[in-house]
């Protein structure tokens, strides 16, 4: 307290105690109120943090200084960010996803518009390329990163779930037991063989798992979905997706040419294309280059591989649960991720035939938009310098895995076709 002569005197002890008690009480009340308002399952408990975010929201900083209160719009955007990243390590609470999400929506609309004039080019692959080029040519501000992470995780899972509406179990059963056995062999042996080759190359468990599932099941969507279960490093996910794009694109031109050289009929060539090529869009382009009959069977075989994404993720989730620390209080990953359950539910709903064609067309457009947005966000995380740092071993594994899966698919197609 300042006296009349300009000097400072020590306040009486009762004033100090009362002041400290009042400040502590207000901080505790603000912290408890804020914790009750924002705590989500899986988020760290912040009820003991009495001078940080809670104080800032009430206009009291951790040092007792006054901080302007946030507007209702700012509080809503912060709360949206907290919920989007609840329980995710390495992401602070209160992040704002709106800038990055707005950028993703704008680029997605642009890519989908371009895709209307280039029907042979998948908007998913185009979005990855646009994201990678943008990230390496224009330094993206840090404030867009939370929204990009949201798109790469949450929007991807919703898109994968809606992917189930593109297939019916009846179409898959119509392939016959022999072709279904070939599809199961492609996925099981493809993943197993790639994992063994990756271990011999000295790659990490998560890196070879991402490549194995991406090349054996359904490309970038499978690799990103596996990341949602194992929580791999960003560099590993982006490497796997980039390799899917490169080698899947090569297969579009190589497989029709090899089919002609081998003298395969359209049905056999279609089974081979559906079993060997990575992405659904790449299968469509490959089957179309072979012929109309090949295209039909290739898409159905590919969608049969997509169905196996659900049991594969369930097995991976079970393995991750075994590897995780089981100490009390440790949050274990779910055995079957929710978006996988939603994927199977959508496939079952499509099988019933209850949905009208207009609803299916809308769902397909929405699913394409969501996966395109997710692929752009993933592509925006690609850094050429980071890909150079991973070395040639992932590239070698991708080459070996492509040849391995294609060989299994060819042998199965010639037997079952």
TrEMBL record:
A GO CC term assigned to this protein in UniProt: plasma membrane
Subcellular location: Cell membrane
Biased composition (Low complexity): 22-45
Superkingdom, taxonomy of origin: Bacteria
Protein's membrane topology: Multi-pass membrane protein
InterPro entries with a match to the protein in the record: UPF0324_pro
Keyword vocabulary terms for this entry: Cell membrane, Membrane, Transmembrane, Transmembrane helix
Region (Disordered) location: 16-74
Keyword Transcription: no
Transmembrane segments: 91-115, 121-142, 154-172, 178-197, 209-226, 238-258, 270-297, 303-321, 333-353, 365-386, 395-416
Family as reported in the entry's similarity comment: Belongs to the UPF0324 family.
PANTHER family: INNER MEMBRANE PROTEIN YEIH-RELATED, UPF0324 INNER MEMBRANE PROTEIN YEIH
Protein name per Swiss-Prot or TrEMBL: Sulfate exporter family transporter
């Amino acid at each position: 307290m300042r006296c009349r002569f300009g000097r400072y005197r020590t306040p009486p002890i009762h004033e100090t105690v009362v002041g400290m008690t009042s400040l502590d009480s207000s901080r505790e009340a603000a912290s408890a109120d804020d914790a009750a308002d924002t705590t989500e399952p899986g988020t760290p408990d912040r009820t003991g943090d009495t001078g940080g975010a809670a104080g800032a929201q009430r206009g009291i900083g951790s040092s007792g200084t006054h901080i302007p209160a946030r507007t209702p719009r700012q509080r809503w955007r912060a709360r949206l960010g907290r919920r989007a990243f609840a329980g995710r390590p390495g992401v602070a609470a209160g992040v704002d996803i709106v800038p990055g999400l707005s950028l993703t929506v704008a680029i997605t609309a642009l890519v989908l518009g371009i895709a209307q004039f280039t029907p042979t080019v998948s908007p998913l692959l185009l979005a990855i390329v646009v994201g990678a080029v943008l990230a390496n040519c224009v330094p993206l501000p840090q404030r867009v990163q939370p929204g990009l992470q949201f798109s790469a995780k949450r929007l991807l899972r919703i898109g994968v779930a809606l992917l189930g509406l593109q297939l019916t179990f009846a179409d898959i059963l119509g392939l016959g037991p022999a072709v279904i056995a070939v599809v199961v062999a492609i996925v099981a042996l493809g993943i197993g063989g790639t994992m063994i080759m990756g271990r011999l190359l000295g790659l990490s468990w998560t890196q070879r798992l991402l490549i194995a599932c991406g090349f054996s099941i359904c490309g970038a969507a499978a690799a990103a979905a596996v990341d949602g279960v194992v929580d791999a490093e960003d560099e590993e996910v982006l490497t796997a997706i980039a390799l899917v794009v490169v080698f899947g694109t090569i297969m579009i031109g190589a497989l029709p040419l090899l089919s002609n050289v081998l003298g395969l009929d359209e049905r056999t060539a279609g089974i081979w294309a559906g079993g060997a090529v990575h992405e659904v869009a790449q299968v469509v382009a490959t089957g179309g280059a072979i012929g109309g009959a090949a295209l039909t069977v290739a898409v159905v075989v590919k969608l049969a591989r997509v169905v196996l994404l659900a049991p594969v993720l369930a097995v991976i989730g079970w393995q991750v649960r075994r590897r995780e620390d089981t100490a009390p209080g440790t949050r274990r990953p779910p055995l079957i991720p929710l978006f996988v359950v939603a994927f199977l539910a959508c496939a079952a709903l499509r099988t019933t035939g209850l949905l009208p064609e207009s609803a299916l067309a809308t769902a397909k457009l929405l699913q394409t938009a969501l996966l395109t947005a997710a692929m752009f966000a993933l592509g925006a995380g690609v850094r050429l310098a980071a890909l150079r740092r991973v070395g040639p071993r992932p590239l070698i594994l991708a080459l070996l895995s492509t040849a391995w899966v294609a060989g299994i698919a060819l042998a199965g197609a010639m037997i079952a076709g």
